[in-house]
Structures are given as structure tokens and as C-alpha cells.
Amino acid sequence: MADYLLTDCEAVIINEGKGPSVLRHVDILTSGARIEAIGPGLSRLANAANAQRLDASGWFVYPGLINTHHHFFQTFVRNRADLDWTKLSVIDWLDRIYPVFSRLTEDCFYHSSLTAMAELIKHGCTTAFDHQYCFPRHAGKRLIDRQFEAAERIGMRFHAGRGGNTLPKSEGSTIPDEMLETTDEFIADCERLIETYHDASPFSMRQMVVAPCQPVNCYRETFEQSVALARDKGVRMHTHVGEGESRVIEARHGRRTVDYCAEIGFAGADAFYAHCWELSHTELARMASDGTGVSHCPEPVYLVGAEVTDIPAMQALGLTIGLGCDGAASNDNSNLMHCIHSAYMLQCLMASQRQHPVPAPVDFLGYATTGGADLLGRADIGRLAPGMAADLFAIDTRRMDYVGTRHDPLSLLAKLGIGMPTDLTMINGRIVWAKGEFPGFDEAELAARAEEALATIQF
């Protein structure tokens, strides 16, 4: 692995544990997977002598973004008028889209994962958590194995959420029988994947999360055994909570979802929930007390959220907050950088209706970096500082797009909303995207192979 010296960076967003700040006209030296030093004149260091030099003049360099909720397999159902939320009721939409999911093949899971990871990397994401809950019987059990294969091929730091659904549709779930598993099947495969892939060492590129899909689609025993396995193996837990299901859970179990999960033990500093837009202040306070975190997915709120998630209240309570893209069934892109802008603007929209003020723009960058690292239990990513993983992205701000903005790099991503790809993305000290290309890959060929897999699916 090459060492790199990024020289004369216009701005570097650093964080040595006391919050983000900006250094101007400094160098960054990487050594293998880690950041060796950040500061001026690093070319004088002896260990910089053999580093490959990159002219970073004009670059704003940020810590790599951390995506904490996604469904990569849904990449194959993007931009379809026949699956448009705005033209269907939720029930009709579910009845139409789940049969499509149930027809995906093993190759579809591989290529859809590669597609989502490529888009994430292009827009500055260096660590991705995917909640893979779709296991059609004909596709087999090696779907997450193929995701790890895709992550290794493209260079993504990958946390796999092994999801699953165990409650039949006849008993109130939304899942077709082709996608159902027993609790024993689900737990056994979680254990296999943890034993095969989970690496808790510093700068790990592979970790596992036990992630039953959601309480509304699983038996109670599925969640109980998930807690037992995750605590035994020392891995994180994840599920969907507070996205419209709380009344259903209350009718079934006599309590809303947050209390139901807490009663089971699916809560605490090793657990994080996706969405949480319908939760009461009391429920949020319980999560904060337990240490349970939130992956906020702002862009699906435009389509499927009856309310805009109360991020100011969550922050005031001290909840750990990360950001997620969510799957293409409710967000047609995999651009986490754009989610920073969406999250901020949605809170600005609701400012007059909130008890607490909108967090500062830089806080939204924090959700996508240090917040995501905290949710995933990682102390080695999410910040630019010596000793941290060399996960970063750079934007060349010497463009008309950035005139008038360059005085405040901390607020740039939240306020401006950047849709174009980065000029460089580095993961674990390896350049995985630069100058509009994936080094060592023909992007057109990757896209063609993905389109071939997509063409096997009948809509």
C-alpha cells in the first residue's frame, strides 16, 4: 500500500476529539491505513521521503462520510413510475414492490451492492452499513458473502447488517412467503457470518451487525435471540423503529415499539434504530437514557414520512445521531453528502414548529462522520487526526460553484448541497476514486454487468 503526501491543502477539517476545526494550507501524510501527520511543511519529515505526492492546492479535505442505514438491493428498483409512492397507498406499494424483491437473484444482490457502493464512494462515503433483510429462498444464504466480495473489490469499508423476516404475512407482516426465514435459520446465519467476517481490530474493513428487519415483521423470539447472540459475540444491533409501525406493535404487544424493544433488551449503547420520525419526546428520552442511537434518513422523509424527524429534540436529549441514505425504495440515490444538505434544510423548514433551535450546519457534518462512527462502535474512523484511519475525501473548490463559499468549509456541505462527485476519495489509505475514475476499474464495464443482472428481473 502506498503512502501519500497531500500538499498545500486549501482547508482540512480536523477533529482531535474536541470538535471540528479548520486548518489552512497544510499537508496530510498517510502511512499505510493511518494518518501519520497533518500540518505545514510535512515534506521535511523523513517518513515522507517515499510518499507519493498529490498537489492538493484548492482542495477542501473532509473526513470520510459514514452511511449508517441503506438497503443496497433496492438499487435495482430506482426511478420506476409503476412503483411511485405518490400514486399508491402504502399497502398497495408494499404489495407491489415486495414480490419484485422476492425475485432477485444472488447476482442481483452482488451487482446492486457494487452499484450502491460506487455511488457512495463517488460522493465521499468511506464506510457503509447496509441493512440486507431480503433473502429470497431461491437466492440462497450467501448474499452477504457476495456483498463483502463487492466491498473488497471496490475498496469500501463495509459493515453488514444481517437482516431477516420471520413473521408470515398471514399473521400480520408485509413479507411474502418467499422471503421468510425461521428464527433458527436467521440466527444460525448471523452466527456463521460473524465467525467468518467480523473483524474488531483497528482499521477493520469488515464488521457484522445483527439486524432483524423490524418488529412488525418478526416474532418476538427473533429479537430475543438476536440480543443474546449480539451480546455473546460483542457486535452491534440494528432495526427499523418509529416509521409508522408503533400503533401496530402496541395493538399486538400492549406497548409501542421503543418500549417493546427495550423490554426485550434490544436497546442500549450497542443498538441503533433507523428513522424514528414518529416517536414521542418520552420515547426519545428513554432511548437517550438507554444509550440507543438513531440513524436519521432525511431524504425518504420527502416521500414516506408523515412528520419531519425532530433532530433538535434528539440532540438536546443527547442522543447519538448518524445519517443514512436508506434504500432506493424511498430514496433513489446513494449520495450521503447530499443527505447532509437535505437533513439541514428539512430542519430549517420546521424551525418555527420546534421547541429547540436547528443545530448548527457543522453538526450535520458531525452526524455523517463522528455520529456514524459512534453508532457503529468505531473509535478509528470519522475524524481526521494523526492515528486515525486514512479515510477522507477532497473537493477542489477552484470552481465557479464555490465562489463566495470558501470562507466556511465547516458549513459548506450542509448549506450548499453538493451533487457532483468528489475529486478524490481515500479509504484506509487507498485511493478508490480520483479524477473521475475508479483506479483499476472500467466503470462502463461495471455498469454494463449490473444492467445485465437487472435485466433478469421481471417487473
TrEMBL record:
Key word ATP-binding present: no
Keyword annotations from UniProtKB, A to Z: Hydrolase, Plasmid
Classification via CDD domains: ATZ_TRZ_like
UniProt-listed InterPro entries: Amidohydro-rel (IPR006680), Metal-dep_hydrolase_composite (IPR011059), Metal_Hydrolase (IPR032466), MTA/SAH_deaminase (IPR050287)
Gene3D superfamilies xref list: Metal-dependent hydrolases, Urease, subunit C, domain 1
Family matches, as SUPFAM superfamilies: Composite domain of metallo-dependent hydrolases, Metallo-dependent hydrolases
Record domain Amidohydrolase-related: where: 60-432
PANTHER family for this protein: AMIDOHYDROLASE-RELATED DOMAIN-CONTAINING PROTEIN, AMINOHYDROLASE SSNA-RELATED
Family statement drawn from the similarity comment of this UniProt entry: Belongs to the metallo-dependent hydrolases superfamily. ATZ/TRZ family.
Record protein name field: Amidohydrolase
Organism per entry: Peteryoungia desertarenae
